[in-house]
Amino acid sequence: GNYGIDPAVRQHKTVCASGAVFRRVSRHPSHYRSADSLPHWLETSGVRGIEGIDTRALVTRLREEGTMRSVIAVGDGAIQDAPDVLRRYLAQPLGTPELVASVCVKAEEDKGQGPVRVALLDCGSKEHIAESLVEAGAEVLEIPFTTTFEQLLTLKPDGLVISNGPGDPAELDDVVATLRRAVEYKKLPMFGICLGHQLLAQALGAKTFKLKYGHRGGNQPVQDERSGKVIITAQNHGYAVDAQTLPSDVEQTLINLNDGTNEGLRHRTLPISSVQFHPEASPGPDDANHYFRDFVGSLREQHAR
Fold first, then answer.
1. Active-site residue (options: 139, 142, 263, 280)
2. Are 194 and 252 part of one and the same domain?
3. 94 pLDDT tier (thresholds 50, 70, 90)
4. 264-293 pLDDT tens trace
5. Domain for residue 157, yes or no?
6. Strands 208-224 and 230-241, how do they pair?
7. pLDDT grade for 95, boundaries at 50, 70 and 90
């Protein structure tokens, strides 16, 4: 919290975290762009926080045990109730459609102008994804993740981007069914990002699995399988595509050099591809920003024919 809060770099309209854990919170930020302190921002956003926690010990335990569920409890009564709350929490699946619904647009939003129209299926999209598509020269229609294939076609998009988002891709059957229809249509170029990569992989016939150690941060090395080139990427996900389950008409294009997991795919005959990382970064390195230019550029070439 030393930097405080700068609204200009926010990547979502709301705070998507349910809680925040700190060793010590700075109540007096020091940055020329700061417009608010971290504790006040969390309070006004309705997000619970707790400080005085040995975060290094907590991170060490998470590293050893993998992702774990937790409850923030403050006060004697809350602490006494915590076991019951945790038991109810444990009974719930991790990545439900309700989780995605809480962070996606509720109605179509039109952004930018351009000779090609990109439909952005919002599963919890970061703001800079739409901005990057607009910068690449596209009109962007951001649409809810519940949009059906028939509704999608009425928008007459030149291409479809499936965004990042929270949760378990295996819980989003309706979205996968919509994407499967789009694949079978064979006329709609598609590009998936993070959760969108996993959903698209499932629509193509592959399976996903939960990582013991999720990929977090802006320094994940990814290698192109064809060229051998390595880029540094921003990532934030706890699930991955099982490359061993990719069908024969889909090829793995990228791998993570830390653990060898899948980072990208491409259909061998259809204009469909996806990446596990965040090419828009924000924050993070911009090594992969060209994926937006490449996708929009291919749509413009197709549009000009």
1. 280
2. yes
3. low
4. 999 999 999 999 999 998 888 889 999 999
5. yes
6. antiparallel
7. low
Quick one: 178 and 235 in the same domain?
A: yes
Residue tagged active-site, from 194, 197, 237, 263 = 194
User: 278 catalytic, yes or no?
Assistant: yes
Q: Catalytic: which of 128, 215, 267, 278? A: 278
For residue 283, whether the previous peptide bond is cis, meaning omega lies within 30 degrees of 0, is yes
User: What's the pTM?
Assistant: 0.88
pLDDT of residue 93: 67
20 and 143 housed in the same domain: no
The range of the structural domain enclosing residue 218 comes to 98-304
Q: What is the DSSP string of the chain?
A: -TT-B-GGG-SSSS---SEEE-S---SS---TT--B-HHHHHHHTT-EEE-S--HHHHHHHHHHH-S-------SHHHHHHHHHHHHHHHTS-SS-HHHHHTTS-SS-EEE---SEEEEEEESS--HHHHHHHHHTTEEEEEEETT--HHHHHHT--SEEEE---SS-GGG-HHHHHHHHHHHHH----EEEETHHHHHHHHHTT--EEEEEEEEEEEEEEEEETTT--EEEEEEEEEEEE-GGG--TTEEEEEEETTT--EEEEEESSSSEEEESSBTT-SSS--TTTHHHHHHHHHHHHHHH-
- The first and second tokens of residue 33, run together, are 């762009």
